[in-house]
């Protein structure tokens, strides 16, 4: 089956659905609209209007694409239902009826666990793909869901296409891995890629997977679209927002340490060898709540005496901040010595305040900062005028027994099918052996006792990385492209070395996971993001650039691993490229 993706988040490229439908043959087209922050946004929407709570952009895409999908026989599966999949299903039916398009619409519900704990804004269990499978088996042309796992959009559709049983663990695990590669859209085709200068990624095409009956797949994209599909781009996405070698899911546990990648032609990467184990008996539950109120002021410090200027501001505002629950100062030394422009001569001093009361972090506080304008450091100015306090969100996760969640498929004819968790085997399957460290022979390193020539260089000279968030935690996946580089990376980038290179992680729990088939290490950092992206805990609230910071850090690298000449940027085309479409 050929299954594509047309959305990696709520606000992704608006024209992607049409691009995927017109760019080449497909059997199923998926769209991923949900993330931890999105659930908070939809929760606030639902507070204002209980009839909302779903991703409205999906409907706008269907206005342009539903007739195309019907003409081409492409089924559409999307988690755009968010907190109200039934209302979105009704809206899709109304859209289809108004346009005279005879499509059958179904939806999946049961993930919404509200009312939940006191103060919860949303609480949703992460369902698997069984509800999607049931809807497609009943003849649905469009299936909308609430909070299913991102990969379930693909694995649920593949289980329908191939009629897999719930205990087909290896096949399901292969589809889950393909779904994980597709779920973030153009991140699999060169977007957000460490080695982006190797390819023209100004307007990358969205990815698709050719899935075989045995669960193996080929990751590719429509012909003539931008970007690239390589073992590197697929590896980067495989490492994104994963924790450990066992990728736990409601339908199956996929062993990421068994994944093997191989080039299968231009812009084609074959994914094989994935082993699956039974799913855990529990489901993850994501809970959001309003954590309080926040505000911020960014002071611009220009020229000389940057540290003294910052100290003066902090002293002058100390009394105003005494009653505030949390006040965080960050000085970013973006200034350059003897700079040719005023901007590059300036540093940024950022004050972020949080409190349960909007009054303590409202205009009174930001106005106190502005009142210093003529009585503080020379060159005083800020990046924005004083503003009111804004609510911020908090994300937390827990688990519930899978058999307590009413996973329900609502079929096109309105029939309701209640789905039970997959049966657990009486005796657990013997797990795949843990990966062994790489063998370090003469091809991988200097002979024993011989000094190794090294050069001081950034880690990114030999390694790629991708990072992301899971609630308040972050992961950083690091990979290399050759066996000698892998042997060096494996022995060098220990947890202690990781903490040394990224001092912000020094006092936090860090765990290293090994994925030898991918020549990759994956580090999980607990607590670095505080209460999650919506709390605005740090400068990079989703840890999207944590991996690139790691790549920019310098260490001693064997000289034979560092390329003599970096790969040049992809040459600019001789004809103007079309303007990329802007997501909403």
Automatic annotation (TrEMBL):
Residues 458-552 form the AtuA-like ferredoxin-fold domain. Residues 1-410 form the Acyclic terpene utilisation N-terminal domain. It comes from the Bacteria. InterPro entries: AtuA-like_ferredoxin_dom (IPR056362), AtuA_N (IPR010839). It holds the Pfam family AtuA_ferredoxin. Residues 405-456, 565-584 are annotated as: Disordered. Residues 426-443 have a biased composition (Basic and acidic residues). This is DUF1446 domain-containing protein. It comes from Streptomyces subrutilus.
């Amino acid at each position: 089956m050929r299954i594509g993706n047309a959305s990696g988040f709520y606000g992704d490229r608006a024209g992607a659905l049409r691009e995927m439908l017109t760019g080449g043959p497909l059997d199923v087209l998926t769209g991923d609209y949900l993330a931890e922050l999105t659930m908070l946004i939809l929760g606030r929407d639902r507070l204002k209007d209980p009839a909302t709570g779903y991703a409205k952009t999906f409907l706008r895409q269907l206005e342009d694409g539903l007739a195309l999908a019907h003409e081409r026989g492409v089924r559409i599966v999307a988690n755009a239902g968010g907190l109200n999949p039934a209302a979105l299903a009704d809206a899709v039916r109304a859209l289809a009826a108004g346009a005279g398009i005879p499509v059958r619409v179904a939806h999946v519900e049961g993930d919404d666990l509200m009312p939940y704990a006191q103060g919860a804004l949303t609480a949703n269990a992460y369902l698997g793909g069984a509800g999607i499978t049931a809807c497609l088996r009943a003849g649905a042309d469009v299936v909308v869901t609430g909070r299913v796992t991102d990969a379930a959009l693909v694995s649920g559709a593949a289980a329908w296409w191939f009629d897999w049983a719930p205990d087909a663990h290896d096949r399901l695990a292969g589809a889950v891995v393909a779904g994980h590669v597709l779920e973030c859209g153009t991140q699999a085709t060169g977007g957000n890629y460490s080695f982006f200068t190797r390819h023209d990624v100004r307007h990358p095409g969205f990815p698709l997977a050719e899935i075989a009956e045995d669960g193996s797949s080929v990751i590719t994209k429509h012909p003539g679209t931008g970007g690239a599909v390589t073992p590197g781009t697929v590896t980067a996405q495989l490492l994104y927002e994963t924790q450990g070698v066992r990728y736990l899911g409601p339908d199956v546990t996929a062993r990421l340490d068994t994944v093997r990648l191989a080039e299968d032609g231009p812009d084609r990467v074959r994914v094989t060898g994935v082993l699956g184990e039974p799913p855990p008996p529990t489901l993850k539950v994501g809970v959001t709540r309003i954590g309080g109120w926040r505000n911020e002021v960014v002071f611009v410090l220009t020229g000389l005496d940057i540290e003294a200027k910052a100290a003066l501001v902090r002293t002058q505002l100390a009394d105003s901040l005494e009653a505030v629950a949390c006040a965080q100062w960050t000085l970013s030394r973006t200034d350059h010595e003897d700079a040719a422009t005023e901007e590059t001569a300036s540093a940024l001093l950022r004050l972020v305040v949080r409190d349960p009361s909007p009054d303590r972090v409202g205009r009174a506080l930001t106005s106190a900062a502005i009142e210093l304008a003529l009585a503080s450091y020379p060159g005083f100015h800020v990046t924005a005028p004083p503003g009111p306090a804004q609510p911020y969100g908090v994300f937390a996760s827990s688990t519930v027994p899978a058999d307590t969640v009413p996973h329900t498929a609502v079929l096109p004819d309105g029939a309701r099918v209640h789905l039970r968790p997959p049966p657990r085997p009486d005796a657990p399957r013997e797990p795949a052996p843990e990966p062994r460290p790489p063998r370090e022979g003469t091809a991988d390193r200097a002979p024993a006792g011989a000094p190794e020539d090294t050069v001081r260089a950034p880690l990114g000279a030999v390694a790629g990385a991708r990072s992301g968030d899971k609630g308040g935690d972050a992961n950083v996946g690091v990979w290399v492209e050759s066996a000698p580089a892998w042997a060096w990376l494996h022995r060098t980038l220990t947890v202690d070395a990781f903490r040394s290179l990224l001092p912000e992680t020094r006092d936090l729990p860090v765990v290293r996971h090994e994925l030898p088939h991918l020549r990759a290490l994956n580090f999980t950092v607990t607590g670095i993001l505080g209460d999650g992206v919506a709390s605005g805990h740090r400068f990079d609230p989703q840890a999207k650039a944590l991996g690139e910071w790691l790549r920019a850090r310098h260490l001693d690298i064997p000289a034979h691993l560092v390329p003599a000449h970096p790969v040049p940027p992809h040459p600019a085309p001789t004809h103007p490229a079309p303007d990329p479409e802007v997501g909403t």
